[in-house]
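Milestone M4 deliverable, item 7.
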Amino acid sequence: MIHNMMEERKKLNRSDVSLPAPLTEEELARLIETVEEREILHAPGHLRANIFSQIQEGKRRERRRALFSYRAQVLVGMAAALAVLFLVPVDGVGAPQIPQFGIPGALYEEETEGADEWERDTLERRRDIEETWKRYRNGQERAYARKKYFRNISEKFTNYRIWED
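Output delivered:
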């Protein structure tokens, strides 16, 4: 209802205002001549300088904003890298101990001194098997450490979610 009253008031105000009659061709030609001769409308002298200074200021702001964004991304990346370095476990720490089998290097040298070619080949194959076993065992220890690390992270997230609730 109030809206309708406002519209009615605007209509009344519009009807009261008398609009001038459109210019005739003679009056329009005279207006054009006076504008061309006298140059009635002039832009302020500082307008161009103001416009260019505002454009330059906008570009500076955008560059500063882009630089800040880049710096923030770099800092977040560095923080994430440091967090990973501190949180990733060191190989062998906290991993279960797997029994070691094999021939130590000094024993191998002693055994091969008096052995014939066939025995040396057998001992070399056995040493290769032992080295392969060590690599496998080290890989298993690393896999166990990774699993433990990710399990700890998931537990932290689970506990954090519970704290938030």
